[in-house]
Amino acid sequence: MKALIVDDDFYSRNMIHEILRQVAQCDIAVNGEEAIEAFGRGLAHGEPYNLICLDLLMPEMDGQQALREIRALEKEHDVAPQDESKVIVTTMLADEKETHDAFFLGGATSYLVKPIDEEKLLNEIKSLGLL
To answer: Per its UniProt record, what Pfam families does this chain match (predicted)?
Structure first.
């Protein structure tokens, strides 16, 4: 499995990386712009990300905008819906509007509130069929 961890918080990035590195090849981005660049490179090289852990609140470009652009890139590359990257939104916000927007406007797959628990994250990945 290939995973992209997108978070501007050093602690959160490292925590998610420590969990995922046991089961995935991980790349890291610190904001939405870096995430889109990494995602585009993966698609262009025929090595798309299976999983993206995406924070919502980040500088430069937030997670909502990054998610919309990632889904647009998948459409441009004719990625079939069943082959789209699974996106787990990871955020400190337990905000219903943010959750609604991530799912219904951005196409997020699931949602976890920080701090991320190893068991919850791995169970979520299993439920998405990636483990």
So the answer is: Response_reg
